Amino acid sequence: MGYHPNPIAKKLIQKKTLNIGVVVPEFINAFFPEVIIGIQDVLIKKGYQVLIVQSNECFETELKNVQSLEENMVDGLIISLSRETKNLDYYKSLIDQNYPIIFFNRYNEDLSASKVIFDDFKWSFFVSEHLIKQGCKKIFHFSAYNHLLLARNRIKGFKKALDKYGIKYDKDWITETGLFVEEGEQVMQGLIEKDNIPDGIVCANDKTAFGAMREIKKNGLSIPTDIALTGFSESPLVELVDPPLTSVIQPTHEMGEIAAKLLLKKIENEHMTPETVILNGTLNVRASSLKVKSQ
Amino acid sequence: MGYHPNPIAKKLIQKKTLNIGVVVPEFINAFFPEVIIGIQDVLIKKGYQVLIVQSNECFETELKNVQSLEENMVDGLIISLSRETKNLDYYKSLIDQNYPIIFFNRYNEDLSASKVIFDDFKWSFFVSEHLIKQGCKKIFHFSAYNHLLLARNRIKGFKKALDKYGIKYDKDWITETGLFVEEGEQVMQGLIEKDNIPDGIVCANDKTAFGAMREIKKNGLSIPTDIALTGFSESPLVELVDPPLTSVIQPTHEMGEIAAKLLLKKIENEHMTPETVILNGTLNVRASSLKVKSQ
């Protein structure tokens, strides 16, 4: 590789940098920036630089991004897949070549690489159970994009909670919504227009919950009395909205640190057996879902 | 350069990618992610890939990041400086070599490169004037890090408004706060403890305003009756906090697009005369600052 550092940089920095590429689907939600900071905190100490690319949830951009990083000869990749990614051939070929590659948050079960993920099933169960314990009887789930494994796992957790407490649900209680404020708003608007109003909603993330909240308030309904609302992913602003939003904290920084450590392990030993680290969360109950005071 | 694409990638993508490096100081605030999306929207269409690095507001990391991008032979750089960056030697040497480099938002007047910036003076003046027109008499400015040019320009705009309306201010009305929720909270807490309470606050950004808001509410003071509050940079959640926050919209996406276009121009003509594009904003008045109903 033609390495010709600028003479001033050379004076300031003596050694050749090692690069790691991080591929994220988007970074408007604080989730990915927070994970990346965790990744950098581990890797910078070890002398690595972190090059980030974002796919805008587009598979073609993701693939070009990954190729661009590979061309630039990064020493390893940490990836969270775009919502469009279904063709895994390229990733499979990298893994077959023992290229150091780690997945986090959004992955695919057909890829035999190490990964760090969140226990979406369990925490979706807990947050759904919380609404049931608050007396909700008609609980909707505004799910993320359903072809994402994390969305499907959260749907499973939601269903499991309703089943456990003997609540029969219609198919339309689970509605594919997405991950952005406008999407939450739109789905809520549709329900209000059809007068099909739940008394509780488990949202896929905080943003969709913020959107639902805006629409609920605009229509003169009250939270939590008419509709109890929960988010997911604990963004920094859950305490500032009105009413404060119940959410599930995901250990984003830890997710990044573990992804970085798994990558360093793979770089040291290319024949390591793939590992899966599953992280736990915390349910933070706030006014948006608290119908029963003495819980 | 040793270019050896993976055969599957080669099949999927025929042409060699061109890379642009984007250097941001942080991306927890939505500001930088939004600018980057604007940059990508222009560059991806032109066949460029965008490699992003984030400096965590640290000069050493920033410099290593830039060197890492340069080593990886990006075809140009778009940079917003970290809050620590004072040594400009490296950037000056790149500019002297006619390396394509564009600055946005945070720059330094000693660098003779093209840049796209926001008219901080003017919009800080307008938002301060708005509070004066609402009847505020003791207006504080929670400023950003004072060695940033944008922070100093906003201080100038704030002072200009107070001068114009003949409001005499103490030195302590301008208090260096920063850019994060906790920083706004902390400065507000200090004022409440010292019982030195303003009737209006112009915050450097929305996050510091959210922090001040949290602290004001915690202490049983009301917004805007006791303290009228304004943010800056219009984050997506200003409408969702209680009360909704008055803020200044900065054209983040446009800032990114223009930065990308300036870079393409510089790549096409390395001897171009440096250009400065100054962008305007919009003041969005909401309940957090609206004391006078009939404004």
What does this structure look like?
- Two copies of one chain form a homodimer.
- Chain A has about 300 residues and is α/β, with parallel strands linked by helices.
- Chain A folds into two domains: about 5-115 and about 250-280, Response regulator (Rossmann fold, 3-Layer(aba) Sandwich); about 120-250 and about 285-290, Rossmann fold, CATH 3.40.50.2300.
- Chain A is about 40% helix and about 15% strand.
- Chain A has nine helices and twelve strands.
- Chain A has helices spanning about 5-10, 30-45, 60-70, 90-95, 120-135, 150-165, 180-195, 205-220, 250-270, and strands spanning about 20-25, 50-55, 75-80, 100-105, 115-120, 140-145, 175, 200-205, 230, 245-250, 275-280, 280-285.
- In chain A, strand 6, helix 6 (about 150-165) and strand 7 form a beta-alpha-beta unit.
- Chains A and B meet through helix 1, helix 2, strand 2, helix 3 and helix 4 of A and helix 1, helix 2, strand 2, helix 3 and helix 4 of B.
